[in-house]
C-alpha cells in the first residue's frame, strides 16, 4: 500500500530530537505556555519574514481570531473562494460575519481574481485568499481590490507553509495570515495546532489577548476571549520539524516534477498548473480526471492511497445552505469538485512508488472512457 501521506517516515527523522525536548518539558511540567512555545513563535516568524507569530489551538481558530482582531463581526462580509476546506467559511461564520463566495480559476483552482471585483462592496471587511494545495494565491492582485472598499486581507495559509510568491513567503502579504499545524500539513504537529502571523503589532497584541480568555494578566478579563493555545509539547515537535521544512519542501517539489514527467503522455489526466511567480510546496498533488469515482476505486484496488480534496464546494454543503446558492452558482468550482484527485505525495516518496502510482493511474483512466 502506498499511502497518501506517510507521517511515520517523517517522524523517524525527528524522533530523537522530539524525545529529548519532551523530556525537558516533562521535567519542568510547563505544559501550557512553556518557553518552547515562545521559541517556536520566534522561529516561525523569522522563517516567514514577519515580526509577529501567535501560536493558537488550531488553524480554524487562527482564522477566526485573525478576523476578530481585525474587528470583524456581525453585519460584515468576508469574501473567500468556493473551492476550499469548509473551515475557511466556518471561521468567518463563527466570527459572526457572512461568507461571500467567489468562483475559482479553472487552471489553478485558486480564487478567481477577475470575479472578485463583482462581489466586494461596502459591507466587505475582509478578503480571504486561500493558498490552496501548497500554491500561493496572487495576493498582489487581490489586495488593491480589497483596499478599494476598505477591506483587509487575511491569508489562509494552512496548506502552504514555506510557499513563495515572487520570492516572498506566503503569510507575509496580507494584514494578517492564519495557518494550521494539523498533523498532515507540510509543517504538522502531533495533534492540533495553528498560528496567526502578521506584520502589525496591534493585531498580534489583540490575538494574544483573545487566545488567553481575553486576559492580559491573571484574573483580568477586559474583553471576552477564547481558550486557544498551542501546548508546549507540540511546540517542541514544530521546532524540530521547522528546521527540516525547507529540505522536505524541496523533496516535495522534486516529487511533483517527477509526476509531471510520468503523467505527461496521459491526455485524460489534467495535471496541476503553477501560477507564474509561484514556488509551490506541494502540500497536495492534485490532478483532474474524468469519472473520478471509478478511477479512485481502481487506484484503491491497486493499493494506491489516493484521496479527494474537496468533493463538495462550500455553497453546496448543508452547513452553508443558508447562503442561498444552488447547483450552478459557481460552475468552475463545481466542475472541479467532481474531477479533483489527490495522488500520494510526501517528502520520502520514492521513484518506485511514484512509478507504481503513475502506472495504476494509467490503467485506471485507460479503462475509464471520457
From TrEMBL:
Keywords: Aminotransferase, Antibiotic biosynthesis, Pyridoxal phosphate, Transferase
Name of the protein described by the UniProt record: DegT/DnrJ/EryC1/StrS family aminotransferase
Domain of life: Bacteria
PANTHER family per record: 3-OXO-GLUCOSE-6-PHOSPHATE:GLUTAMATE AMINOTRANSFERASE, TRANSAMINASE
Positions in coiled-coil regions: none
Lineage of origin: Bacteria, Bacillati, Actinomycetota, Actinomycetes, Pseudonocardiales
Entry's family note: Belongs to the DegT/DnrJ/EryC1 family.
Cited Pfam families: DegT_DnrJ_EryC1
One Gene Ontology term of the molecular function aspect: transaminase activity
Transferase among keywords: yes
Gene3D superfamilies reported for this sequence: Aspartate Aminotransferase, domain 1, Type I PLP-dependent aspartate aminotransferase-like (Major domain)
InterPro entries to which the protein is assigned, alphabetical: DegT/StrS_aminotransferase, PyrdxlP-dep_Trfase, PyrdxlP-dep_Trfase_major, PyrdxlP-dep_Trfase_small
Amino acid at each position: 500500500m502506498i499511502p497518501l501521506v506517510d507521517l511515520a517516515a517523517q517522524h523517524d527523522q525527528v524522533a530523537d530530537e522530539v524525545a529529548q525536548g519532551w523530556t525537558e518539558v516533562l521535567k519542568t511540567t510547563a505544559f501550557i505556555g512553556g518557553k518552547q512555545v515562545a521559541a517556536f513563535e520566534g522561529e516561525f516568524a523569522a522563517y516567514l519574514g514577519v515580526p509577529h507569530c501567535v501560536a493558537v489551538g488550531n488553524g480554524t481558530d487562527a482564522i477566526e481570531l485573525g478576523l476578530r482582531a481585525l474587528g470583524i463581526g456581525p453585519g460584515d462580509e468576508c469574501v473567500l473562494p468556493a473551492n476550499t476546506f469548509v473551515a475557511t467559511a466556518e471561521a468567518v461564520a463563527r466570527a459572526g460575519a457572512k461568507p461571500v463566495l467567489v468562483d475559482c480559476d479553472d487552471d489553478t483552482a485558486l480564487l478567481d481574481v477577475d470575479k472578485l471585483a463583482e462581489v466586494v462592496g461596502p459591507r466587505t471587511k475582509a478578503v480571504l485568499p486561500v493558498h490552496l494545495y501548497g500554491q500561493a494565491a496572487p495576493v498582489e492582485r487581490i489586495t488593491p481590490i480589497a483596499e478599494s472598499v476598505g477591506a483587509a486581507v487575511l491569508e489562509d495559509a494552512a496548506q502552504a507553509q514555506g510557499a513563495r510568491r515572487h520570492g516572498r513567503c506566503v503569510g507575509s502579504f496580507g494584514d494578517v495570515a492564519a495557518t494550521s499545524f494539523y498533523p498532515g500539513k507540510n509543517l504538522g504537529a502531533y495533534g492540533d495546532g495553528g498560528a496567526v502571523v502578521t506584520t502589525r503589532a496591534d493585531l498580534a497584541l489583540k490575538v494574544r489577548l483573545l487566545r488567553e480568555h481575553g486576559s492580559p494578566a491573571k484574573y483580568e478579563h477586559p474583553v471576552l476571549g477564547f481558550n486557544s493555545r498551542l501546548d508546549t509539547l507540540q511546540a517542541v515537535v514544530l521546532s524540530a520539524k521547522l528546521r527540516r521544512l525547507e529540505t522536505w519542501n524541496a523533496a516535495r517539489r522534486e516529487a511533483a516534477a517527477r509526476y509531471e514527467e510520468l503523467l505527461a503522455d496521459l491526455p485524460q489526466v489534467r495535471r496541476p498548473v503553477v501560477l507564474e511567480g509561484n514556488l509551490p510546496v506541494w502540500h497536495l498533488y492534485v490532478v483532474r480526471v474524468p469519472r473520478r469515482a471509478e478511477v479512485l476505486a481502481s487506484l484503491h484496488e491497486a493499493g494506491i492511497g489516493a484521496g479527494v480534496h474537496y468533493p463538495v464546494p462550500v455553497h453546496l454543503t448543508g452547513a452553508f445552505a443558508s447562503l442561498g446558492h444552488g447547483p450552478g452558482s459557481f460552475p468552475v468550482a463545481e466542475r472541479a469538485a467532481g474531477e479533483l484527485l489527490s495522488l500520494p505525495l510526501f517528502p520520502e516518496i520514492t521513484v518506485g512508488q511514484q512509478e507504481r502510482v503513475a502506472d495504476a493511474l494509467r490503467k485506471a483512466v485507460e479503462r475509464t472512457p471520457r
